[in-house]
Design brief:
Layout: E1 2-9, E2 12-19, E3 29-35, H1 47-56, E4 60-64, H2 81-96, E5 101-111, H3 113-124, E6 128-134, H4 140-147, H5 152-169, E7 175-177, H6 178-181, E8 199-201, H7 202-210, E9 225-230, H8 239-247, E10 252-257, H9 271-283, H10 291-295
Helix pairs in contact: 2-3, 4-7, 5-7
Length: 296
């Protein structure tokens, strides 16, 4: 069963799709909020693929459009990382109201931008029971310097953001092209769905640059964390998951996959699904392992 839902965040209507798989024993089940990538939607990019992996294994999912994206309200193309953290918390609030969901067994899963927001949110909100990150990043400025190599591209990015900060301070709006914020190699651009945004408020670039999920990742433990990353990721360096792993507590699993690129779940490769399957069985099983967990 899939159900179109909405909830309010600061007066902005957030659109989502709740998927409750058939079957089960009638008891509340664990659920995941699925957070989409940069400028994507609940219907595009990795979100449907991640949702299907979890639904096929019996987990409930809530795929949402962040403010300014898809069917949600808000300023189109204005994606502020810390605001997305708050929206992710509201998604948890919503899942807690559903009788189908075990309220203390709600996880977060995301790819790229959504992965970074998932990690930060879990570190900031003890209600998050488990986290799966695919191609996430820990330090926006460090990531930006790798994908905008100095001197020319790096200086261009810094100049753009300085102009943007001045515009924001003056109360003016400035829009910038997608690839000026996050470059995508030409051979991967076909992976960007037509529903995805191609222009963003400069505040988006500033927000990504200043965002540091690595400062929060150590607070997730002892809740389980799974880090997935293509070894030769040309959009988000795999070194970002290395840095997250260095700062994470236990239990944390980290898997690097070769011969795939950033859009891991858009490629015909089943390895990540098998990794997630095994990890769920061990650290976040569909059926609670104790009477106390089942009651929760």
């Amino acid at each position: 069963m899939d159900e179109a839902i909405t909830f309010d965040w600061n007066g902005i209507e957030i659109s989502g799709i709740l998927d409750v798989p058939d079957g089960g024993d009638g008891n509340p089940r664990p659920a995941f909020a699925v957070l989409h990538g940069f400028g994507s939607t609940k219907h595009s990019g990795s979100s449907p693929a991640l949702g299907k992996i979890l639904n096929d294994r019996g987990y409930i999912t809530l795929r949402i459009d962040m403010p300014g994206c898809g069917d949600s309200g808000g300023d189109r193309g204005r994606l502020i990382c810390l605001e997305q953290v708050e929206v992710a918390k509201r998604a948890i609030d919503y899942l807690e109201t559903r009788s189908e969901v075990a309220p203390r067994r709600i996880g977060l899963i995301g790819a790229s931008f959504g992965a970074a927001v998932s990690i930060y949110t879990a570190g900031d909100d003890a209600r998050v029971a488990a986290v799966i990150s695919s191609g996430g990043w820990g330090n926006g400025a460090r990531k930006a310097k790798v994908i905008h190599p100095p001197p020319e591209k790096w200086e261009k990015l810094l100049s753009m953001m300085e102009e943007g900060r001045n515009k924001v301070a003056a109360g003016e709006k400035m829009m910038v092209p997608r690839f000026d914020i996050v470059p995508i190699p030409q051979h991967l651009r076909g992976q960007i769905d037509e529903l995805s945004l191609m222009e963003f408020d400069v505040e988006t670039a500033i927000s990504i640059f200043d965002f540091r999920p690595e400062d929060m990742v150590g607070k997730i433990a002892p809740r389980p964390l799974l880090l997935l990353h293509p070894t030769d990721d040309t959009v988000t360096p795999s070194s970002e998951s290395v840095e997250l792993l260095k700062r994470a507590g236990t239990p944390t699993d980290c898997h690097f996959l070769s011969e795939v690129d950033h859009f891991l779940f858009s490629e015909n490769d089943d390895r990540a699904g098998h990794i997630i399957d095994d990890w769920l069985d061990k650290f976040f099983p569909l059926t609670a392992k104790s009477v106390q967990d089942a009651a929760e």
